[in-house]
Amino acid sequence: MQNAVPGAPSIRGWTAAQCDDGWMARPRPAGLVLTPGASARANHPALLAIDDAVTALGLAVARVEFPSQAAGKRRPDPAAVCIETIRVATAALAERLGVPTKRLAIGGRSMGGRMCSMAAAEGLEVAALVLVSYPLHSPGQPDRLRTAHFPNLRVPCLFVSGRRDAFASPAELEKETEAIPGKVTLVFIDGDHSLRRHEWEVAEIVAAWLARLR
User: Fold this and answer.
1) Is residue 20 assigned to a domain?
2) 200 in any annotated domain
3) Average pLDDT over the chain, rounded to whole?
4) Residue 127 and residue 155 in contact, taking contact as beta carbons nearer than 8 Å
5) Which of 12, 128, 181, 194 could form a disulfide with 2 if both were Cys (CB 3.0 to 4.6 A apart)?
6) What confidence tens digit (pLDDT) does each residue in 74-114 have?
7) What confidence category does residue 9 fall into, taking pLDDT thresholds of 50, 70 and 90?
């Protein structure tokens, strides 16, 4: 079911005035681990905006780079390296806050978000996934989906994507996320994969969702 709010982003699963007490009957996450896309770093404007908005809620935020990004290399690390980086960063934030990892949300932009979803699917216990500009497939290759792990995602998932995203159209996301057992919230805003100049809009959506997550 998709809820449309005049003059507002297109949303499935949540609106600012809507709260499902059944799936939100749990402690709010204590923190958020954020990862960048393949060609970005931890100081990407979108991550900085989300950091500011979520920190204002009283949640701790850890912006994490993958090894190749930290070394200034253009070639992304293998998935196994990225997933292990996320595991280590999540465990470190949990230890700093004195909470189990299942009290933390993880996510990020594009490839970073995808790696976080794979980490959760492989058994990393977290509270939720925040997935911005999730890349279902490479542009022009809709038959090569990156969704085999979706049936193993049993936590609440927020997807925020542009309506003109060449990596995942709204229709494709609507269809493919039906395989996710966890509660899925889809939010579509104007923009392409980069969501450039929409950083604060995205950040406010993420913060509002996390504020209602229980």
Assistant:
1) no
2) yes
3) 88
4) yes
5) 12
6) 788 899 999 999 999 999 999 999 999 999 999 999 999 99
7) low
23 pLDDT tier (thresholds 50, 70, 90): very low
Q: How many CA atoms lie within 13 A of 24 on its CB side?
A: 15
Question: Which residues are CB-contacts of 194 (< 8 A; sequence separation ≥ 6)?
Answer: 133, 162
Strand order in the sheet with 157-162: 3-4, 10-12, 184-189, 157-162, 128-132, 104-109, 31-35, 60-63
Per the structure, the complete domain to which residue 147 belongs is given by: 30-212
**Tally of structural domains, the chain:** 1
Give a yes or no: residue 25 inside a domain.
no
Query: What does the block give as tokens for 120?
Result: 């959760």
User: Which tens digits make up the pLDDT trace of 63-79?
Assistant: 999 988 887 777 888 99
Residue 184 lies in a domain: yes
201 pLDDT higher than 60 = yes
Bridge partners of 187, per DSSP, are: 11, 160
